[in-house]
Amino acid sequence: MSARSAADVLICGVGITPFGRSEATGQQLAVEAVHSALTDAGLPWSRVRAAFGGSDAAGNADTLVNRLGLTGLPFVNVRNGCATGGSALVSAVNAIRSGAADVALAVGFDKHPRGAFDPRPADWGLDEAYGSEGLMVTTQFFAMKIQRYMHDHGITPRTLALVAEKAYANGVRNPYAWRRKPLDAAEILASGMVNDPLTRYMFCSPGQGAVALLLCDRAVARELGEGVTPVTLRAAAVRTRRFGSFEVFSPWAPGGTPASVSTDAAKAAFEEAGVGPDDIEVCQLQDTESGAEVMHMAECGFCEHGEQERLIASGATAIGGALPVNTDGGCIANGEPIGASGLRQVHEIVQQLRGRAGEHQVPGAPRAGFTHVYGAPGVSACTVLTR
Q1: pLDDT digit string (tens) for 47-57?
Q2: How far apart are the C-alpha atoms of 274 and 268, rounded to whole Å?
Q3: Among 194, 210, 72, 215, which Cα is nearest to 142's?
Q4: What pTM was estimated for this model as a whole?
């Protein structure tokens, strides 16, 4: 096989399970998602030539072959925090581009226990004192970061509440979402302070779910059935933090404006795709809490810092707005199964570009979408997709 260009990688099949809680294991959910993706593409498991996937807490992805079929294909485990799914996708893209495979799978899944994430400092290269001082608490990090951002750019607590209000409203429309009860901004602001300025209902929750994406080259896409609608994956980029960034489990800042790994990943994705933020008609931005969505709007290039206050209040980021953001409810409504979240974002954009997003479909037949995921200790993965 010869090497292929970025435009030669297509997503031909997608599969997702409901997010939230169930009796199924994470691996059972992953198998369900893979079978759905295969059915969507009209391809058998034996046609997959390479697979990449992972979870944070639900086992090794390569063992899925016990249930999917022992075909001998190369299956690489990926574990990269919240960017696990995005990293698996980049690996599958590279397998297609290099000519190593003409059909490749990216799968992400997880099943987290109730309660907040409980990371060990040593696993992140940190001294145990870092944990005893409370700096391994992710809610505290996000609060510190958004506090500084609000001060510097004039963002109010009500804007944070409006982001969450939108997330729950979109979740009501999404049959796969975990949180499907609408909440208004007043309820969200009054839901109890977790870490100032972030209240209880501004956060996502650890949960469970699985997503699978089937990628192929253009030759395979031409052989698919009439009911299959491939979407072009124009770019997929992963970046880690640079000196001077302010990140989860690395919360320090030098003088001046901190660097942003999200900005670096988004810029790389746009350059690779040959398009810019102004070309995007629907996007998914990491919203571990509502302040993250606010910051990522600017960090990924969709507005200037400080413009979010006006844009969000005007409804610009709603499903019918100028730039719909997190149309499926994002992490706030879906929860955060770490291995699956980044691929959930891509699944949503694929369905939006196909016109198959149901009650949360963006009007006007969008032709270009973007996804962004962010995780500890400063890693980001972004994609650009077109119809």
Answers
A1: 999 999 999 88
A2: 10
A3: 194
A4: 0.93
